[in-house]
Write a structure and sequence with these properties.
With 138 residues, this protein is mostly beta strands. It is 0% helix and 44% strand. The N and C termini lie far apart (62 Å).
């Protein structure tokens, strides 16, 4: 198997403004010099985009590919995510949240952890330890 590699550090890079996205927030079209161009693909790790966001593109023989979503001037950088031999660590200065429509896990810098959900289940093959004082049960 072989592949042709082309450096992205050439004149085929463009800054553009997002003009259309799909229902998942994937970039479908961009404006370059007030002309709309279709986007054929975007990187797997490019965040959900909104119309008006700025992106960095590569122009390939097949068309435009979104490589990066640029942060807004007042936007903090993304959380630090590290993969240490399969152990994922998400690090943030204030808090980290995992959320769905009906549940969330929130971890705060002060050590507070909040679990919310319709049904919270803990399964253990050994003793389940709850430590603290007091422990409040409904």
């Amino acid at each position: 198997m072989s592949a042709q590699i082309q450096s992205i550090f050439n004149h085929d890079q463009h800054l553009a403004c997002v003009s259309r996205v799909d229902s998942f927030g994937r970039v479908k079209a961009v404006l370059i010099n007030n002309v709309e161009h279709q986007v054929i693909a975007q990187g797997a790790h490019v965040s959900i985009a909104e119309v008006g966001a700025n992106v960095l593109l590569v122009h390939s023989a097949q068309g435009f590919i979104v490589t990066t979503l640029l942060a807004q001037a007042d936007q903090a950088p993304a959380a630090q995510i590290n993969n240490v031999q399969g152990h994922i660590v998400i690090e943030a200065q204030q808090s980290v949240s995992l959320q769905t429509a009906k549940g969330s896990v929130e971890v705060y810098a002060d050590g507070t952890i909040v679990l919310e959900g319709q049904d919270i289940t803990a399964n253990s093959e050994q003793d389940l330890t709850l430590a603290g004082w007091p422990i409040r049960l409904n």
